[in-house]
Design goal:
Layout lengths: L12 E4 L7 E2 L4 E2 L5 E2 L5 E2 L4 E4 L1
Antiparallel strand pairs: 1-6, 2-5, 3-4
Length: 54
């Protein structure tokens, strides 16, 4: 997670799938400490893919 100096409106989370063969199914996975966030169902991260959420 990136904490921007400008304030929390500019913070984000970036995830990277380091596998070269496996797709990650993120739907329903939650962060419950530090931030409150749950990935919606249907969100997948392809092999070597990355994504950011604000």
């Amino acid at each position: 997670m990136y904490h921007a100096e400008e304030g929390s409106d500019y913070d984000y989370i970036e995830l990277m799938n380091i596998s070269s063969t496996e797709r990650l199914h993120l739907g329903g996975i939650k962060f419950i400490e530090g931030i409150q966030f749950e990935f919606p169902y249907g969100i997948d991260l392809p092999p070597k893919g990355n994504a950011s959420w604000w």
